[in-house]
Amino acid sequence: xxxGAIREHMIQNEVAILRRVKHPNIVLLIEExxxxxxxxxxxxxVKVRNARGxxxxxxxxAPPGGQGSSWRSGLPxxxxAPPRT
Length: 85
Known about the structure:
alpha+beta; Phosphorylase Kinase, domain 1
């Protein structure tokens, strides 16, 4: 397998695991949408309280022993608050 094929295989494995795993400490995979060039994962909304009193966790943190913030620059991130009723 080449680099791209290995990466795609790893992503497919992760998604397959997320489909099967149901645990209170793991964010639930609700749906996946695969296009020719992109994979979109719809995950459950995780509500937490942080020091500022916000009800949503909107921060992406570096992994332990991490690579600083440079690894985050390639992450597409869109968070939408639920509509107010």
